[in-house]
Sequence to fold (351 residues):
Amino acid sequence: MERKPISYAFKIAVVLSFMLSLLTGQAFAASSLSDSKLPARTAQEIKAQWTKLMNPSADFNIPFVRQPTVASPYTPGILKPQYILDGVNAVNFYRFISGLPHDVISTSSLNAQAQYGSVLMAAEDNFSHTPPKPADMPQSFFAKGLASTSSANIYASSGFDDHIVAHSVGAYMEDSDTGNLPVLGHRRWILNPPLLKVGFGLADSEDDWSYSAMQVFDKSRPKTVDYDYVAYPAAGAFPVEIFDSYYAWSISLNMIKFKLPVESGIKVYVKRLSDKKTWMLSSKNGKVSEKGAYFNLETHGYGSGTAIIFRPDGIAKFKAGDRYTVTVTGLKTLKGTSRPLTYTVNFMSVT
Fold:
């Protein structure tokens, strides 16, 4: 069985996509601002949002109001509103735990666009941001499909009997296979602060693959979010249920506040507070692998832009109660002043 996601990276599963205080005694207090200027969520807050947002209620066996057709005559189909809402809720949960505004909505126009892209991929089982035109597909349909896939996170899954759209969001946030690890494009689009509007589509191929497009390049939030960086996992409480030891950590910088970093000058220190074990990650850890130490400075236009991507090695599993402090050195403000980053992740369980 396979799952796949993508954001201008590639994944077999598969996804594609174009000094903080230690918080001791604060785990159940109200959210406080972290070093990033974003709220550090508490365990109680996260448990409440998990119950509210991470329990899909739509019947995944009957997701469509109108079934799409993936052969001539092609039709895009329409997903049930509740099925789409389950995907939107997952997006808002991941944004909430990251300290971001969590009021993202879907729009009918973006949902319709995503349906065309999903059908285009399903038509010939071509999982790509730029699939070729099927010979019997009208040019107008193809143009709409290509406009979707070339501006979306995309996902494919086979052999799973579950809620494809809701699960696709979790796959986009993981983003840590060897194809996606260097950029984490899916995650960075979902955690892009100005994101407000998304759209979800779904179509099944004749060979029983499910394809989903998520329109996610929106930046229409009317109020600018004031932040220095977006960390994942974020400062404060963070659920172990959604973060495995081989997942990449990421810090997306607000580039109106930082000079463009120089990779060779950046060092990331990850300290486990229980035993004081510390990992130092830098450009020397740039080899891509499924597991193990990793570091990359990614400066292309995914989400808000520049991101520091890293992963400590030798951790079998994160457990509730584990606490890790992250410190980044080598960054400078626009005025050239040194700006180290420091925050603490308190792993907890929502169950």
